[in-house]
């Protein structure tokens, strides 16, 4: 598992990367009440704002961590946004993307580095 | 920047795991570990304890209660003379042009008027009252008392365990009660839409009383986050957001707070700042009005979202002044201003969210029925 400074986690299986947000991020957001996901098939570039998350406190975005194509989104989050607080590292994944060039993954943090990052 | 102040309950907030944020010059808990949603629901189903000690408590005294009431009527458009002993009323301070300078509560406590104002405005409010009322009426800002609010359907049962008389109070009654050996100035009121009490106690006794109340199974501490979602569901204004110096009482849908006796044709018509602007608007109707809004779908629309009459084209016709997710409503809710011809219940307007115009329906306020004990 890799982590971004935007508090996303990235899990790689072959050329497929699953993206979610960390427990720390979910806790900071507070109760999530709304999630807007991209359409599967969308081509995205790194740092595009592709997911909207609204909590009781505020709105925030998830940025595309890599260039690629969205191949699957977690529709369960649209119906049950609270999953993000209940199981951020499991059931509450946001999307899976197909990535041809995985080399930027090397720039992201491993778990130890992320733990240090959030202090 | 001036240093942030702390209320007498600060240490208790920290001990309870409160997440502390700056608010109106104070370090206040925005939420506790339970979180805003759970705290909101707890208040609507059991009883929530809020620290509102940052708000301003002011005492007005004069030669007689009538003299004080008469003097206060020169500052607010409310019927103060007609407010019976042991009763409280909602009020507004207005500018010379009728804009709202602050909203407040004032209570007839026999030999004095007890005024509670917003934290962010308390310095200016006190100065304004001193300038207008002294020396005939003394204006004393109370710095040595805390203010707690106990709100929710179990509030009465809880407070009755401390003072049985609490049960006999009606909505907006005020009384001095002894709670856990502490002299408390209690009003049956609050700002959540729930039945409940606001409790003024000496600062050095506040934490002890708060702990006694929290020891009750039905009582949980509630932060500012849930306070905001509760008052929004209750359709109540947040000063500086839903009402400010640019809004007149009529357009703020607060005409109800101005009693007949102070209106055009009333026995004590006018005689308060901004009367020339405020009173005609109550007769002729305002050009724009604060309304309740229900965004369709699940996306919250927050303060600042612009409202349009049509899905495409045209300039904005209004703006959301408070908005978010209503945990009890279980959906997005908002308040905002719209032109009078778009204020009818059920009217569809469009809020622009992330470049898209999404339908919003004008809805009745409050969003959640108030459960005051009248």
TrEMBL record, chain A:
Residues with N6-lipoyllysine modification: 57
Keywords assigned by UniProt, alphabetized: Lipoyl
Domain Lipoyl-binding: start-end pairs: 16-98
Cofactors named for this entry: (R)-lipoate
GTP-binding is among the record's keywords: no
Entry's cofactor comment: Binds 1 lipoyl cofactor covalently.
Gene Ontology annotations of biological process type: glycine decarboxylation via glycine cleavage system; protein lipoylation
Superkingdom of the source species: Bacteria
Keyword presence, Translocase: no
Gene Ontology CC annotations of this record: cytosol; glycine cleavage complex
Assigned protein family: Belongs to the GcvH family.
NCBIfam families: gcvH, PRK01202.1
Function statement: The glycine cleavage system catalyzes the degradation of glycine. The H protein shuttles the methylamine group of glycine from the P protein to the T protein.
Quaternary context: The glycine cleavage system is composed of four proteins: P, T, L and H.
Name of the featured protein: Glycine cleavage system H protein
Species lineage: Bacteria, Pseudomonadati, Pseudomonadota, Alphaproteobacteria, Rhodobacterales
